[in-house]
Write a structure and sequence with these properties.
Strand content: 25-35%
Shape: globular
Largest sheet: 6 strands, antiparallel
CATH topology: endopeptidase fold (from Nostoc punctiforme)
Oligomer: single chain
CATH superfamily: endopeptidase domain like (from Nostoc punctiforme)
Number of domains: 1
Strand order of the largest sheet: 3-8-4-5-6-7
Order of helices and strands: HEEHEEEEEE
Number of helices: 2
Length: about 140
């Protein structure tokens, strides 16, 4: 499956309720749950962590290795389905997925739902990944 498929799967989740540690679109998703649900929808399910604090010092406690999840690090412009890791504040991390029309899809805690917005969410980009072809 391609990045475009991931972008489409993420876009289909726009409007889903936000829930911290949420992994099921029926009950709510957080940003990791959004990625997991979109990946499952394209036939590439992930084992993702569920019990982490809001502030963390070590990224590996929050998100598994990107390569083991089928992603490769990339530089340069984003494409549909790319995933970025943002640091919006001290010891905070947030994921966003580039949508089919190049908007940003993410689980917005303040709005309490998955949204697509034209501008990238607040934070400094620290990682940029693209879905690798299945092996």
């Amino acid at each position: 499956m391609s990045g475009a498929a991931l972008a489409g799967a993420a876009a289909a989740l726009v409007g889903t309720r936000f829930r911290l540690h949420g992994r099921d679109p029926q009950t709510g998703l957080d940003c990791i749950g959004l990625l997991g649900a979109a990946m499952a929808a394209i036939g590439r399910p992930l084992a993702l962590p569920a019990g982490y604090p809001l502030r963390i010092r070590s990224l590996h406690l929050w998100l598994p290795d990107a390569a083991s999840c089928g992603f490769a690090a990339v530089d340069g412009p984003v494409s549909p389905g790319d995933v970025v890791l943002l640091v919006p504040g001290p010891a905070q991390f947030h994921l966003a997925i580039t949508g089919p029309e190049m908007g940003w899809i993410h689980a917005h805690a303040g709005l309490r739902r998955v949204v697509c917005q034209p501008q990238i969410p607040d934070g400094r980009i620290v990682h940029h990944w693209r879905l690798s072809p299945p092996s």
